[in-house]
Automatic annotation (TrEMBL):
Molecular functions per Gene Ontology: 1-phosphatidylinositol 4-kinase activity; ATP binding
EC number of the protein: 2.7.1.67
Family, similarity comment: Belongs to the PI3/PI4-kinase family. Type II PI4K subfamily.
This protein's record includes keyword Kinase: yes
Domain PI3K/PI4K catalytic intervals: 157-454
Entry keyword Transcription: no
UniProt-listed InterPro entries: P4KG1-8, PI3/4_kinase_cat_dom, Ubiquitin-like_domsf
Source species, domain of life: Eukaryota
Broad EC category: transferase
Protein name: 1-phosphatidylinositol 4-kinase
Species per Swiss-Prot/TrEMBL record: Quillaja saponaria (Soap bark tree)
Keywords: ATP-binding, Kinase, Nucleotide-binding, Transferase
Amino acid sequence: MSLDVDNLVHTEMAVATFEGPECCGNKRRERKPSGRRRIFVQTETGCVLRMELDRSDNAHTVKRKLQLALNVPTEESSLICGDMVLKNDLSVVRNDSPLLLTRNFLNRSSSTPCLSPTGRDLQQRDRSGPIEILGFSNQFVKTKELVKDIVKAMKIGIEPIPVRSGLGGAYYFRNSHGENVAIVKPTDEEPYAPNNPKGFVGKALGQPGLKRKVWVGETGFREVAAYLLDHDHFASVPSTALVKVTHTIFNVNDRVSGCMHQSEKQISKIASLQQFIPHDFDASDYGTSSFPVSAIHRIGILDIRILNTDRHAGNLLVRKLDGVGGFGQVALVPIDHGLCLPESLEDPYFEWIHWPQSSIPFSDDELDYIDCLDPLRDSDMLRMELPMIREACLRVLVICTIFLKEAAAFGLCLAEIGEMMSREFQGGEEEPSELEIICIEAREILEQEETSTSETEKGDKDVIQFAIDCEEQELDCTSIIEEKLKVASPFQFGSRGANGRNLLSKLEESAAVDEGEELFSSADKCAGLVQDQKPNVSKLSMSMRNIRLGERSWQHLGTKQNSGYLNGTSSGNRSVNELPGSSSFVNLADMDVEEWTQFLENFRVLLYPAFVDRKSGNISQRQRERLGISCKI
Ligand SMILES: Nc1ncnc2c1ncn2[C@@H]1O[C@H](COP(=O)(O)OP(=O)(O)OP(=O)(O)O)[C@@H](O)[C@H]1O
């Protein structure tokens, strides 16, 4: 990339080289030739710049361009895409990705000076269309139609109107007939975000927001995620896409005075754009008894998968079907999914949990739908469509979907599943949900396994060293060990047991099939038999002891039916005070891929006994007792 500053300024500001405006959504944009990508850089204060990257660009060159546009020294800013701070290589950044530009070393409150464009008005220079969809999914076909209608209407002077209700900034966009066709919610006007028009300000984009595990500015892509996950339009989430939208109506707060104002200038924002659904009420205004069971179930299934923390009645639109169908019938439409998929397990809010429809068993169709859900495929799809989504959110999706699938297959109804996911409050204290307790258990087992493994590996090394020592002494120790093990163990060892490593793995295999104490004592004895010959072997004994102890717990956990599966683990009396943080009991983000895979295995094994206990009404009490949490069920 050339460093010709004039050319840079000309080319990149706001950012200049806009390939033909692909607004209006009626023409499908071609994917960029490999290496060339369009990105949207959003500052912490909401300003959005569009840029074209080519293959040679790296984080530094992009920041240099932004330095010219925004007057922020490159060393004082970071470029962020979801989880990633982009240090140099930009190959991971996909076409249409929104990136966040943050200033380092600053108190990132909304009162810090805005990273505002200097000199020329960058927004004015943006020759792209008024509404551009970020993403290529076929699922945005409906949104493209809407965008086309809206742009047509704007051309004849039909402008959007602000939405009064809700805490965030929102605008109804209209068609040529003046009808509302979409609701647009800019990410920098969310509650707490710097340009919120309703007085709920105080944070910069990228800081914890209304929910601790949903950053300010990140509700927009969650709205889109909920729509994309609603396969076959099962729960009727309205079409939703992330857009870059430019208009004069948007709010910009004055950083110094704190006053809000419409700038009268064209402002570009990143926003969610959702189809407007004509409706008569929301669920808080209407008798819930008329709500169809299947609608509640379908919305509930979605809410569970995405761990919706905000399913209050106001977020269910109610449309009367009197004109089109039976008298008194209504359709429900779920909206406002900005607080789903938090970055760790949180307390969901499921308004439907106490509605009688939730206690009715799932229908066959619903069970089939749940059975077909594939959380790994869903995660891959979201990674593809929403490159900014964080891995921790996807882990929440995986956990909750597995939980739903197993629980439904077991025979639990929607209300039971929702209850198992919900926290309880005791004496003003928040307690982990049953789902969270299962996750805590799964992590504990993981930690025990890791301890066992590391000690085993240490034991392995000792055994190898032992074999080497034996070789050096021209002593065929391994055959002695093998002989002694043959005598001592009820299990036969084959010819592979020719060195310490193989002997140990044989021991592990044998241990894995043994249920009782006999092998443990035998193996222990075996090690003891060679102890005289090499002191190192005592460590092998210890390591085997740990393997056995770990496995005993594991088998107990996996097979327990009657005796309380929580009793067999090591941390019998942990109090709630020892649990990390009050609003995040389980950290899913800090596991590497291998640990996460093992964690999921542990998690699955723990589910069945938890469901059994839930059915028998014991689980919560027993789990809470074990964790030292008082709870009256
Ligand atoms: N898809 C839609 N179709 C029709 N009306 C909608 C739609 N989405 C939102 N609304 C209306 O706009 C209002 C505000 O929207 P929404 O609840 O999504 O905003 P919010 O600021 O996130 O609200 P809250 O404070 O409840 O979280 C809703 O109460 C509803 O009346």
